Amino acid sequence: MNSSKQKQSLIARVIKEPLFAFMIVGGLIFGISAALQPQTSEKSDNIIEVSDVTIDRLTAQFDAAWKRDPTPEEMQGLIDTFIREEVLVREALALSMDQADAVIRRRLVQKMTFLMESASSGAQPSDAELQTFFEANKDTYAGKQKQSLEQVYLGAQVSQDDASRALAALNDGADPLTVGQPSLMPGALTRAPAQVVDATFGRGFFASVLSQPTGVWEGPVRSGYGYHLVRVTERPVAAEPALDDVKEKVIEDWAQQATDDISKKMYQSMLANFEINLPDTQENVTQ
Predict the structure, then answer these.
(1) Which of 29, 222, 237, 239 is 20 to 30 A (C-alpha) from 86?
(2) Pick from 118, 134, 123: which is nearest to 255 by CA?
(3) CA proximity to 122, closest of 259, 19, 248
(4) Is the pLDDT of residue 104 over 60?
(5) What's the CA angle centered on 257, arms 254 and 259, to 5 degrees?
(6) Boundaries of CATH 3.10.50.40 in the chain?
(7) Is the pLDDT of residue 8 over 80?
């Protein structure tokens, strides 16, 4: 009984290994490549096979578009179109029209990229793997930093003396509404994340007051509109989530990382089959 469980456990570990997925996809690539290689027989080059599989595919495509099977006349038209396409494609390949064509190259790269990325599709992490990934990337899942603040607008330009007088007045208890210049900007924001603060005052404003102590007016702080005096009233600590709170997102990110890792390994394996010749100025650059 224990031996059977050990074998099952070993098989499960092997199947989850990226190398196993690579071998499967590598075999698939080899099979596709072999199937697409032109045959040496002159007879096969001149034969266009309209097989039952071809008929089924054409029928399925027609049904997907029109929600019914094609009539005999429509089926004949589909076959004629398939034959015409096959003739033109083979003649184009015979004339090497696929060579040095940027559109075809991009499409082939897309197909190979999709094939490599599909190697990890359906892979699921163990609880231990997921926990390890979560711990290594915990900052990614932490709650957004927020700040509550008040601000007084001093204007597009302000002298140092005027800014100092306004700052002293505010720290002495002056009503913010009696200091500075009127504007359409809000006088306060409550528990606002960087996206909201920067959307209100301009990019970088949130970060510029992030190190400012709370409860004290400071500045002037520059925004996209001019200069401000700012008092940070609250800076709540960002919540640190538990794995169960963000498990779906962590699994998604783990799967993307696994896909990236396998794709890189497969590319490096393919790259090893080639000798790269570069100009002297780019020697040793192969990536």
Answers:
(1) 29
(2) 123
(3) 259
(4) yes
(5) 110
(6) 146-234
(7) no
Q: pLDDT digit string (tens) for 130-154?
A: 999 999 998 888 888 899 999 999 9
Q: How many CA atoms lie within 13 A of 165 on its CB side?
A: 8
Q: Write the pLDDT tens digit of every residue in 194-252.
A: 999 999 999 999 999 999 999 999 999 999 999 999 999 999 887 788 899 899 999 99
Closest alpha carbon to 30 in 270, 259, 268, 260 = 270
For residues 260 and 119, what is the distance between their CA atoms, to the nearest angstrom?
A: 10
Task: Determine the 3-state secondary structure of 214 from DSSP.
Answer: strand
Beta-strand ranges (E) seen in the chain are: 146-155, 188-193, 217-222, 227-234
Are 170 and 217 in contact by the 8 Å Cβ rule? The answer is yes
Residue 33, both tokens: 């490549």
Contacts of 40 (CB under 8 A, 6+ apart): none
Q: At what angle do helices 18-36 and 247-271 cross, to 10 degrees?
A: 50
Peptide bond into 220 cis (omega under 30): yes
Are the C-beta atoms of 144 and 217 separated by less than 8 Å?
no
Pairing of strands 188-193, 146-155: antiparallel
Looking at domain 146-234, its CATH class is: alpha beta
